[in-house]
Write a sequence for this structure.
């Protein structure tokens, strides 16, 4: 049987997204939500360097702050305005700007999407054998073994439990809630991931229409909206729609637009796990608080919120406008 020849050309946005979840140990993986990579080198059989078309949703990180001993890296911004952190410096980038990170400097680098719109960029790095990656802000080291696999240790050399393909080869990662249960938390980025959220959101918002659902979510994502979905056995059980935003009254906050669990799945801790992730994410993004509005009759949800420490703080008033004319 003849080996399939490499492709001659492809549309970059149609390259298959990386199936590998976050290769970081679980305690770091949840910080990588909102990132999706399309590997562009593998379809052509490239082995000496890697190329990724990468998308960052609002609030997402490119990677933990890191530096390589032997691998050079390069990025080129296609869309959006990410913030580049390099050593002790920060710089706002814009489309058609680029940056390079020579190996061996010890200067950590990272992109953060602090804007309300997605960021898309190309990243290129070599695959020099024997590389090590250090993480100046975290208790983490990554080492490339002779078989081309990365392993993770604490700074003192104590290993983490899992090794994976690359220290920052990841799409929107799956974060296990419990080692005994096959559940995962993901930011819904692809069309399929968003559409899988419809049954849960429709139960909360019955006015939603399925054939309009994807386009409505995409419009809201342009305004900073994100969907966090908890899945089990390929089905979304609980979710939250949220955004990072700023108010003169409260400063920077994480605002929860939508929060729902399928009725048949309530009482199993799914909603609690979603709220825990949101609260942790708000802390990591330096938010002053987590805010939400809730209907008067949603008593079961109120009990969950109160157990998490939420307190009533104001009245939400509504004036419905007639825009038919």
């Amino acid at each position: 049987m003849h080996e399939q020849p490499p492709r001659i050309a492809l549309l970059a946005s149609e390259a298959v997204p990386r199936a590998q979840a976050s290769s970081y140990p679980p305690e770091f993986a949840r910080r990588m939500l909102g990132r999706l990579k399309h590997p562009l080198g593998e379809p052509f059989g490239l082995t000496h360097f890697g190329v990724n078309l990468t998308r960052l949703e609002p609030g997402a990180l490119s990677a933990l702050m890191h530096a390589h001993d032997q691998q050079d890296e390069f990025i080129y911004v296609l869309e959006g305005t990410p913030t580049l952190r390099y050593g002790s410096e920060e710089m706002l980038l814009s489309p058609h700007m680029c940056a390079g990170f020579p190996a061996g400097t010890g200067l950590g680098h990272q992109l953060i999407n602090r804007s309300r719109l997605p960021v898309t960029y190309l990243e290129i790095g070599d695959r020099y054998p024997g590389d090590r990656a250090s993480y100046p802000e975290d208790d983490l080291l990554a080492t490339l073994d002779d078989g081309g696999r990365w392993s993770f240790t604490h700074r003192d050399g104590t290993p983490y439990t899992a090794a994976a393909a690359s220290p920052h080869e990841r799409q929107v990662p799956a974060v296990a809630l419990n080692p005994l249960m096959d559940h995962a938390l993901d930011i819904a980025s692809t069309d399929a991931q968003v559409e899988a959220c419809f049954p849960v959101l429709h139960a909360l918002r019955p006015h939603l229409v399925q054939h309009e659902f994807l386009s409505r979510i995409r419009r809201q994502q342009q305004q900073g909206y994100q969907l966090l979905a908890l899945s089990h056995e390929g089905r979304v059980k609980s979710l939250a729609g949220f955004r990072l935003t700023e108010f003169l009254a409260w400063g920077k906050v994480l605002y929860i637009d939508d929060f729902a669990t399928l009725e048949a799945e309530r009482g199993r801790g799914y909603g609690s796990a979603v709220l825990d992730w949101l609260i942790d994410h708000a802390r990591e993004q330096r938010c002053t608080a987590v805010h939400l509005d809730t209907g008067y009759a949603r008593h079961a949800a109120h009990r969950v919120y109160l157990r998490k420490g939420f307190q009533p703080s104001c009245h939400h008033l509504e004036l419905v406008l007639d825009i038919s004319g």
User: Anything to note?
Assistant: Residues 2 and 27 are 44 Å apart (CA to CA). DSSP finds six helices and 18 strands in the chain. The first strand starts at residue 35 and ends at 39. The two ends are 68 Å apart (CA to CA).
